């Protein structure tokens, strides 16, 4: 295990050293204009150094070594600066060796021996540059694959943490629901029926939360529609939704779902939708008080429904609305009159991400 870890660290150090070279950075991320220009200048400079060094060594060498310093020049240029500078260095080196070091000297004359020497040079340089190109391309593909895998693993960890967080919140919410229902239900059957209804309602919010984990942003209107649609309220023209377009944080989805599900269920059983003429108008807006912290104001207004009176004692629905509102840093005010229920809710910690008027 220790040897493997050491090898990993050594490999990381080598890769860091390689990525200090423009050729390797370009192989992974692609060349940039400024880097290309610098690479071409470097090719000219490297060829000039190779030429000077070849002149210096010429008296010491027997005939037949025209490319002695030019081969390393092309390979080093390609390794450090990339393929295109290597090609430039190869062309300049070939012309320099042809003019000054291949018979007849000081000319670009071509004969049988010169053609053979040049063909040999072209073959060797093309092979070197080709192999270097394949090596850089393979390294670039490997590094990009590694980066993609690293990103995928980081995203997986993020998604796992997000799912874990949402599940904990959901379990806490269900635990609170069970406690409240147990207090208000008179029989085990009623408890089970009430709990089943709330869990079924929560299922639609969980679907939205799955979209959040996958990167989707949720509008307040969509969250409202997903809660009321299973109750059959969105299929009727008797329901009106009015408010600005808001993108909301997932933290408020489950409390909002429970609030709207309770109001919608009550409207179907006892309120505006218990007859054929009642209407529901749901209005929301963002208020900014003097302290500067934004507050979501939501008004549920029922009209043309039965004459409702305030309950004589606090029931499950009233406690649920109050507790869910307080969990979002707000409150809930219920008004009963001859035409139906009006619920005014404020939510200070609803985490509105952005919004604009519709």
Bin the strand percentage.
5-15%
CATH topology of the largest domain: Heat Shock Protein 90
End-to-end Cα distance, whole Å, is: 61 Å
Inertia-based shape: rod-shaped
CATH homologous group name of the largest domain: Histidine kinase-like ATPase, C-terminal domain
Broad CATH class of the largest domain: Alpha Beta
Number of strands: 8
Regions with little confidence, pLDDT below 50 for 5+ residues: 1-10
**Assembly state of the chains shown:** single chain
User: Under the CATH scheme, which architecture of the largest domain would be assigned?
Assistant: 2-Layer Sandwich
Helix content class: 55-70%
Strand pairing plus helix content: what structural class? alpha+beta
Total count of domains: 2
Estimate the mean pLDDT confidence.
Answer: 78
Radius of gyration: 38 Å
- Going across the biggest sheet, name each strand in turn: 2-4-5-7-6
Q: Can you write the helix and strand succession as a string?
A: HHHHHHHEHEEHEEHEEE
List the helices and strands and how they pair.
Elements: H1 2-18, H2 22-29, H3 33-57, H4 70-81, H5 83-101, H6 112-184, H7 188-213, E1 218-219, H8 220-228, E2 239-242, E3 245-248, H9 253-269, E4 279-287, E5 295-303, H10 316-327, E6 331-336, E7 341-347, E8 352-356
Architecture overview:
- The chain is an alpha+beta fold and 358 residues long.
- The protein folds into 2 domains: 2-152, no CATH class; 185-356, 2-Layer Sandwich (Heat Shock Protein 90), CATH 3.30.565.10.
- Helices cover 61% and strands 13% of the residues.
- It has 10 helices and 8 strands.
- The strands form 2 sheets. It has a 5-stranded mixed β-sheet, with helices on one face. Strands 1-3-8 form a 3-stranded antiparallel β-sheet.
- A hairpin with a 4-residue loop joins strand 6 and strand 7.
- Mean pLDDT is 78; it is low at 1-10.
